[in-house]
Design a protein that fits this description.
With 532 residues, this protein is mostly helical. It has helices at 3-14, 22-41, 47-53, 58-86, 88-107, 112-140, 143-172, 184-198, 212-236, 241-263, 277-307, 312-318, 320-340, 342-358, 369-396, 403-437, 446-452, 456-472, 476-518. It is a multi-pass membrane protein.
Length: 532
């Protein structure tokens, strides 16, 4: 850093409330971020357990994941504007309270539909918390220190990716499935205490009005698109009205949303920001990064627990290499971006991600553990290389007083990418698995065949139940055929996972091209003018 840059950083810091206790503020923001991300990722390793104990279908399981994400993404715009208007500290406290309440209610759900509803409530709280943490960091830290702070923030997100499944797996070995949602409640209380103690209030001195029609349009558009994709993957086909209507309707609503935002005097989303390459290319990079991360985590859980026979704790532990890779690389990627530019660092990260998913072709039911660890470690390093530079690129062009809206866009593309990753890759996996397992499920009783074809967890559960019932009736031939179905199911799943991993690698390769073509190179330190 030059003497001029240092002087500018000092002068900038003097104008920022809370700067003297900025590292306590950052610590509090990482705790709040842990609440939201861990509260979301705890569901991943519990999916097979939910399928058994709640009797959830494959589509219901995907909605248990996506209900949170769709509501989260739809409300990010409004919470960003509300935070800029009434104060980000206040919104943070509201969001933590709502998220904790939704978590408690989700823990005691009696049906898949009830769980989906309370997951949506959790999304309301999460939409307030996650972007606000980034907005607070942007307001407290001056430009010279913001990259490092965002790197630590991104590293925390990486740790939470594995922390949630690991904690969930540990809880499932002792308690009932609902306890996984209670893990984050005491952490939320700690976040509330830290916010009250250390976080200064900040807001936009010239806030705009809340664009209610825009918010409702965004929710409807996202819900339609994701629902159509999930429904198509459930086996009904892409050309049926139940799929085409929500898909086309969602796309049209999205176009209408953008058209209205461009003409609104108080838009929920300032679409003009997407004309800036540093903003639009970075947003695309984050979206594709989380498309791969969330989608791959969804099918990895089935691989670990279904094909390899891991229990929830073991499968949670198996995801640690991804989190460690992200946690190690994210803080370092900010410094690398300062030296080589966000373009080079993000592109290199996507190359690593692509290679890691191509490496999934070597994984089968009996693949050595070191091979799995290597593939997941490379995936984590690549994703960590993308997160911090892309986030900093977005926030660097957003005026400080609009940090809430900028952080909302940053988190929207992450969550929309994650939702589409789970929906598209989950649908691809389910379709390929159903085709691979084929008529092998005919050994099962007729009522169980349709559901058994949707996922390896359903097939294994049905096969074991059929084998037990056949043995009890003295029908050893049917019992042996049912047990053989387990091996067939594992082979069918691995083949489907290989195809899905190729799709994930393709998305990452496309992201590398997007970054190389459109993302600017080394930063010049320019920032959008602030009216503060």
């Amino acid at each position: 850093m030059t003497a001029t840059e240092r002087d500018g950083t000092v002068a900038d810091a003097e104008e920022r409330p809370g700067y003297a206790r900025r590292w306590w503020v950052l610590t509090t923001m990482t705790v709040c971020l842990l609440v939201v991300i861990t509260g979301n990722t705890t569901l991943n390793v519990a999916i097979p357990t939910l399928q058994r104990e709640l009797g959830a279908t494959q589509g219901e399981l995907q909605w248990a994941v996506d209900a949170y994400i769709v509501v989260f993404a739809g409300l990010l715009f409004s919470w960003g504007v509300i935070g800029d208007r009434i104060g980000r500290r206040r919104v943070l406290l509201i969001g933590l309270g709502v998220f904790a309440a939704g978590s408690v209610l989700a823990a005691f759900s009696d049906s898949p539909l009830e769980l989906i509803a309370w997951r949506a409530v959790m999304g309301v709280g999460g939409a307030a918390v996650q972007p606000t943490t980034l907005a607070v960091i942007t307001n407290v830290f001056p430009a010279g220190e913001r990259g490092r702070a965002i790197g630590i923030w991104a590293a925390t997100a990486g740790l939470a990716v594995a922390g949630g499944p690991l904690a969930s797996g540990a809880v499932l070995t002792t308690f009932w499935w609902g306890a996984i949602f209670l893990i984050g409640v005491p952490v939320a209380v700690l976040g509330i205490a830290g916010t009250l103690a250390f976080v200064p209030e900040s807001r936009d001195p010239f806030p705009g009005r809340l664009d209610v029609p825009g918010v409702l349009l965004s929710i409807a558009a996202l819900a339609g698109l994701v629902y159509g994709i999930i429904h198509a993957g459930s086996g009904v086909g892409w050309a049926t009205p139940g799929v085409l209507v929500p898909l086309v309707g969602g796309a049209l609503l999205l176009v209408l949303f953008v058209w209205l935002q461009r003409r609104s005097s108080h838009p929920a989303l300032d679409v003009s920001l997407f004309r800036l390459p540093a903003f639009s290319a970075a947003a695309a990079a984050l979206g594709l990064n989380f498309f791969a991360l969330m989608g791959a985590t969804f099918y990895l859980v089935y691989y670990l627990q279904g094909a390899r026979g891991y229990d929830p704790l073991q499968s949670g532990a198996a995801l640690i290499p991804v989190a460690l890779g992200m946690a190690l690389m994210a803080p370092r990627s900010s410094r690398l971006a300062e030296r080589f530019g966000a373009k080079a660092v993000c592109a290199g990260g996507f190359v690593l991600i692509t290679l890691s998913f191509l490496g999934f072709q070597l994984l089968d039911e009996a693949a050595p553990l070191w091979l799995l660890v290597t593939a997941l470690s490379v995936q984590g390093l690549g994703m960590g290389a993308v997160m911090a530079p892309a986030t900093e690129s977005i926030m660097s062009v957003v005026p400080r007083e609009k940090a809430g809206a900028g952080a909302a866009v940053n988190n929207t593309v992450r969550q929309v990418g994650g939702a589409l990753g789970v929906a598209i890759l989950g649908s691809l996996l389910a379709t390929a698995y159903a085709a691979n397992v084929g008529r092998a499920v005919d050994v099962l009783p007729a009522p169980a065949r349709a559901e058994a074809s949707t996922s390896i967890a359903a097939t294994l559960e049905a096969a074991r139940t059929t084998a037990a019932q056949a043995r009890a009736a003295g029908d050893e031939a049917t019992a042996a055929a049912a047990l053989q179905l387990e091996d067939t199911a594992r082979e069918a799943f691995v083949s489907a996972m290989h195809l899905t991993a190729v799709g994930t690698a393709t998305a990452s390769a496309v992201a590398a091209v997007v970054v190389l073509v459109w993302l600017p190179g080394r930063r010049t330190g320019a920032r959008a003018p602030s009216s503060a």
